[in-house]
Amino acid sequence: MACPHCDDTGWRPVEIDGVRRVVRCECWRARLAKRALDRAKIPPRYSRCGFDNFVIYENEGLKRAFGKVRRFAEQFPVRDPRRGLCIIGPHGVGKTHLAVAALRHSIVDKGATGLYYETSRLLHEIRATYSAGQTLAESEVIRPVIEAELLVLDDLGKEKPSEWVFDTLNLVVDGRYNEDLLTIFISNFEDTPDHEDPDSLLVRVGSRIHSRLHEMCEFVEYDGADYRERPPNAGPEDLLALWQRRPKRKTIPAKTRGPLRAQLRGSDGRTDLKWSGGKAGR
């Protein structure tokens, strides 16, 4: 059915001070936003995530996180200083929902180019370019990631640390850093200063990226209920009860850390992060 205002031309007639003119129709803007959202690679599960359908309950950390992410989206692209966000928390507390809500807002309301990637998927697509017969070049995968006005990079640190992983992520992070572009990073790994804790964000991403993150981002860390465990039609009280029953995050016991740390250490006692499978990490 054709648009009743512009007959699908994209231009709507208006009268301003007695002069008849044409302006861009709202349907044209809606089509433009839809195409931009399609190109953003937001997974179908998160395609309707917004600030208005994020359920908030009595959790001060979550409320602060919600407020910071929403303000980030409302101020986009103007930031003083120009810093993105690094959202940290355990599984299921709504980190991806909030980040995608900000991404969708920047695309639909601000007309920005945006992109969502789960870190492992991005690295998989880059590795695939090394396969024989693959016509897509590595740069064709990385360039849109570096150039997007807003990037959401989810599950940072999930990939097993290796030289290739660090080098590839450095390429992406440094590219966006140099272009002064805003990024929302999401991670389940706590930002602790322990260089020997294999489950710290520092060890999982490497010291160079970790340093960049602190310069590029405001850190937003919180705990909460696992939204995936809530029953149908659960309300704020149900989420609060779930959170209160949830075990607190624990560090690896000292007896366990030794063997795990040893896996990351070389014969010289320093961290050994070499990738054993060649250029593509296969």
Describe it.
This protein has 282 residues and is of the alpha/beta class. The chain has one domain: Rossmann fold (3-Layer(aba) Sandwich), CATH 3.40.50. The protein has 10 helices and 7 strands. The protein has helices spanning 26-39, 60-75, 95-108, 119-128, 138-147, 163-178, 201-205, 207-216, 236-245, 254-263, and strands at 11-16, 19-24, 84-88, 114-118, 150-154, 182-187, 217-221. The strands form 2 sheets. It has a 5-stranded parallel sheet with strand order 4-5-6-3-7, with helices on both faces. Strands 1-2 form a two-stranded antiparallel ribbon. A hairpin with a 2-residue loop joins β1 and β2 (19-24). α2 runs parallel beside α3 and α5 packs across α6.
Q: Strand portion, in percent? A: 5-15%
Instruction: Report the structural category.
Output: alpha/beta
What is the general shape?
Answer: globular
Distance between the termini: 50 Å
Helix content: 40-55%
The tally of domains stands at: 1
CATH homologous superfamily identity: P-loop containing nucleotide triphosphate hydrolases
The residue-averaged pLDDT reads 85
Strand order of the largest sheet: 4-5-6-3-7
Order of helices and strands: EEHHEHEHHEHEHHEHH
- Tell me the number of helical segments per DSSP (H or I, 4 or more residues long): 10
Whole-number radius of gyration? 22 Å
- CATH class equals Alpha Beta
Q: Summarize the main sheet.
A: 5 strands, parallel
**Unreliable spans:** 251-282
If classified by CATH, what would the architecture be?
A: 3-Layer(aba) Sandwich
CATH topology: Rossmann fold
The number of distinct β-strands equals: 7
